[in-house]
Amino acid sequence: MSDVICGGWTKTKKADEQTQKICENVKNQVEEEPQKNYAEFHAVEYRSQVVAGINYLIKVHVGGTNYLHLMVFHKLPCNAGQEVVTGVQEHHHKDDPLVPF
Question: Where is pLDDT greater, at 3 or 49?
Fold first, then answer.
């Protein structure tokens, strides 16, 4: 039997090339509101949820001991297939769990 619950979040997985690409695509959106420029912006791990598109919850290393948790919605191809940042949490650490917010 599968551990996946329809509409539920996956378990935390190690980030891959696709996750890093999503981070690169949304980096400007993340930097806009706090007007910060992150020299480092590396996806570490993520969770996902299939809805009318895909929600991603991504842990991003931004330098030193600093991490962000990002909520990103990836639209379906019929809706332009773009990624939109729907939430950012600052002041996280390496061992903080990814909890949907």
Answer: 49
The model's pLDDT over 38-51, given as tens digits with 9 standing for 90+, comes to 999 999 999 999 99
Distance CA 94, CA 96 (A): 6
pTM, full prediction: 0.90
> In CATH terms, is domain 13-92 a member of 3.10.20?
no
Chain centroid to Cα 1, Å, comes to: 27
Give the 3-state secondary structure of residue 87.
strand
Q: With cut-offs at 50, 70 and 90, classify the pLDDT of residue 1.
A: very low
Beta strands 66-75 and 83-92: pairing type?
antiparallel
For the chain, strand residue ranges (E) read 13-14, 42-51, 53-63, 66-75, 83-92
d(CA 77, CA 58): 21
User: Would you list the domain boundaries of the chain?
Assistant: 13-92
- Residues near 78 by beta carbon (within 8 Å), at least 6 away in sequence: none
